[in-house]
Design a protein that fits this description.
With about 300 residues, the chain is an alpha/beta fold. It has 13 helices and eight strands. It starts with 7 loop residues before the first strand and ends in an 8-residue tail after the last helix. Homotetramer; dimer of dimers.
C-alpha cells in the first residue's frame, strides 16, 4: 500500500515579486521559513496561488530549484508542473525531479477541455516519464474540465499517481471516489472552507491558500481532523469563516497577496492579467483579518 505524499496542512505558497516584477528570492526564503515555523507538513510551490500561469519556463524551474534547496528536507516539497500541453508538463516534471522535489502537482489540462479518455492518457503519459509521485488537481471552475470518479478509479491503479487535490466542491464526487478507489488513492481538500467535511469523508489534509497568512490555523484544523476531533476542528473552521471568505473576495491569489502585504510581508504585486485588489474589497479583507487577530485594529 502506497503512503500519502503528506498528511495535514500544506500551503500553496505565493510567489513574491520585487519592485521590478522579478521573483524576490530573499522574501521567498522568509516566507518558506515562516511556513515551516508555523508547523506545516509540506509546501506546494508554483500552484495557482504561486502564479505559475504567468512565469516563464526559466523562472518556473528556478523557483522550484530554490524552494527545494531552501526547504532542505525540513518538510516535503510538492512542485506544480501542470500544463495543457502534455509535453510541457513532462518537461516541468522532469526538471522538478532533477531539483529534488518530493512530488508533483498536476492540474487538469485547461482550455483544451479534453475527454475523460484524454485525461487518462495525459496523466499516464506523464507518470511513465517521471519517478515522482503525482497529485492530480481538480479545479473545474478554472480549467473547464472535471474528473469523474470512474476516471479516478482508472488512474488510481497507476502506482505513481498518489491522489488528488479536490477543489471541485463536489462532495458526491469525493464520496464516490472513496468508494471506487479504496484507501490508498489519497484526497486532499483544495478549498480551505471545506477541510472538515472533506476530511470527514477521508481526505488526508489540505493544500491551502489560507495557510499563507495563518499556517498554524490550517495545521490545527487538519490535525484535529486526523486525530478524529471533528467537532473541535469544525468550531475552529467556523470561527475563521469570515477570514476564509475574505481571502476569496476576488480571484486567488489577489486577496492573499494583499493580505500578506497588509501583514508587512512585502510580497509585491501581481502579474497581468491579475491586478491589485479593489479598494472596497481591501477594506473587507482588512476587517476580516482584524477580527481573526491577524492585524492590529489600528493598522
Amino acid at each position: 500500500m502506497r503512503e500519502p505524499v503528506f498528511t495535514g496542512a500544506c500551503p500553496a505558497i505565493v510567489t513574491p515579486f520585487d519592485a521590478t516584477g522579478a521573483i524576490n528570492y530573499d522574501r521567498f526564503a522568509q516566507l518558506i521559513d515562516e511556513q515551516i515555523a508555523g508547523g506545516v507538513d509540506a509546501i506546494c510551490v508554483l500552484g495557482t496561488t504561486g502564479e505559475c500561469a504567468t512565469l516563464s519556463l526559466r523562472e518556473h524551474i528556478s523557483a522550484v530549484n530554490f524552494c527545494v534547496k531552501h526547504v532542505n528536507h525540513r518538510v516535503k516539497v510538492i512542485a506544480g508542473a501542470g500544463s495543457n500541453d502534455t509535453s510541457a508538463a513532462v518537461y516541468l516534471s522532469q526538471h522538478a525531479q532533477d531539483s529534488g522535489a518530493d512530488a508533483l502537482l498536476h492540474v487538469t489540462p485547461y482550455y483544451n477541455k479534453c475527454s475523460q479518455e484524454g485525461l487518462i492518457r495525459h496523466y499516464e503519459y506523464i507518470a511513465d516519464r517521471t519517478e515522482l509521485p503525482i497529485i492530480l488537481y481538480n479545479v473545474p471552475s478554472r480549467t473547464g474540465v472535471s474528473f469523474t470518479a470512474e476516471t479516478y478509479r482508472v488512474l488510481s491503479q497507476n502506482p505513481k499517481i498518489n491522489g488528488v487535490k479536490e477543489a471541485s466542491g463536489n462532495f458526491s464526487l469525493v464520496a464516490h471516489t472513496r468508494y471506487l478507489c479504496g484507501d490508498d488513492f489519497y484526497i486532499w481538500s483544495g478549498n480551505d472552507d471545506q477541510v472538515v467535511p472533506m476530511m470527514a469523508l477521508g481526505a488526508k489534509g489540505v493544500i491551502s491558500v489560507v495557510a499563507n497568512v495563518a499556517p498554524r490555523l490550517m495545521v490545527d484544523i487538519s490535525h484535529l481532523c486526523l486525530d478524529g476531533k471533528f467537532q473541535e476542528a469544525f468550531q475552529l473552521q467556523l470561527q475563521h469563516t469570515e477570514l476564509m471568505d475574505a481571502l476569496f473576495v476576488e480571484v486567488n491569489p489577489i486577496p492573499v497577496k494583499a493580505a500578506l502585504n497588509l501583514m508587512g510581508r512585502d510580497v509585491g504585486g501581481l502579474r497581468l492579467p491579475l491586478c491589485d485588489i479593489s479598494p472596497a474589497n481591501l477594506e473587507v479583507l482588512r476587517g476580516a483579518m482584524e477580527r481573526s487577530g491577524l492585524l492590529d485594529q489600528t493598522c
